[in-house]
Amino acid sequence: MEPATYAVDPRPTGPPWRCWAEVGEDAAARQGVYVPVHSVSFGARNRIVIAPGDSRSMTLILERCEGYCRGVDGRAGPNLACEGCGRPVATRIDDCGMWQTVWLEPDLVVRRASGRPADPPPGWGDLERAEHRVPPVEPDGSWSRRWEAAVGVVLAHLVVATRGRPVALPAGPVTALLGHAVGWYLPAGPGALSSALAGPGVRAPRSRPDVLFVPLHPLTGEAWRPPSGEKGVVPMDSGVWAYLAHPGETSPMPATGGLPHGVLRDDYPLPPNPGSSLTPNADAFEYTLVGLPAVRNVRPSRHRGAAC
Predict the structure, then answer these.
(1) Cα distance between residue 91 and residue 33, in whole Å
(2) So what's the pLDDT on residue 302?
(3) Residue 23 phi/psi, 5° resolution?
(4) Residue 159: which H helix or E strand, with range?
(5) Phi-psi domain of 5 (left: phi exceeds 0; alpha: psi -120 through 50; beta: other)
(6) Is the dihedral of CA 305, 237, 223, 246 positive or negative?
(7) Please, is 27 exposed, middle or buried when counting C-beta atoms within 10 Å of its C-beta (0-12, 13-18, 19+)?
(8) pLDDT at 273 > cutoff 80
(9) pLDDT tens digits, residue range 176-192?
């Protein structure tokens, strides 16, 4: 989470957990889980997540600070207590490989206005601004963690939208950045479905694709809907979508043609290069996939992550 922002998860999260075999299909569906998983959460709904640096007036409950490595993972429930009353009110998570977050218990916190004027809410037009784009590579040359999570979510929706069938990605950045990951989760073969980017500032394709990659609103989280109301919409993180749909100028100098084949630019310093293909976050993929009711219509696949 960025500083001074928060989000709400409508699905149950955290302990207590119950095994799928004990819960059953109908009870699991009421918890927002539509395919078999190891365990189903029966924790609170509408937990609020914030950046750890935004938490105030809370102290760790030391006997609830279990973790797998060098941090805490929240397995025992709320591990942060109010300094005033001592009640457990939030869960800090910062173990290795996990997002650093603080989850507030919805029934134990109260929303109060700060008294400061609110910033103007972002609109769809803001997605075309250069500062809204999120680059896929960090300055240190590693893949962006936000991209890894966003691609995991995209792939889950793509598996459901295609019902596990092959799909042809649009040429350009989408194929270059997502092609390898899609190949892991969807089969290849003839009769592939067509796809395209759609959203603010993107010209509609002449033929209607089977699948449209659209942005999520940066504030509400609602998916952008095409005027014609096509089905097969795959929502995407707005910053990731903006980078793919509006990449901007790629060279500081005007050019009338491309470099000869096999000739590399001699920019210095060289642009960061992760040296491996983008790998989607598996937890984001699974959490999103099992929470989509239409996942029951996906035919089984031998590809990793798409066996439902």
Answers:
(1) 22
(2) 44
(3) -80, -50
(4) helix 145-162
(5) beta
(6) negative
(7) middle
(8) no
(9) 999 999 998 999 888 89
User: Is the pLDDT assigned to residue 301 strictly greater than 60?
Assistant: no
Written as six digits, the tokens of 161 are 């939208």
Instruction: Tell me how crowded residue 129 is: count the other CB atoms within 10 A of its CB.
Output: 12
Closest CA to 252 of 242, 273, 267: 267
Global pTM reads: 0.84
pLDDT of amino acid 300: 56
Which residues, in sequence order, are CB contacts of 114 under 8 Å at separation 6+? none
**Phi, psi at residue 266, to the nearest 5°?**
-110, 40
Contact 111, 122 (CB under 8 A): no
For tokens 């609110």, name the residue: 118
**Residues in Cβ contact with 119 at an 8 Å cutoff, skipping those fewer than 6 apart:** none
The whole-angstrom separation of Cα 254 and Cα 276 is 30
The two three-digit tokens of residue 245, written as one number: 């749909």
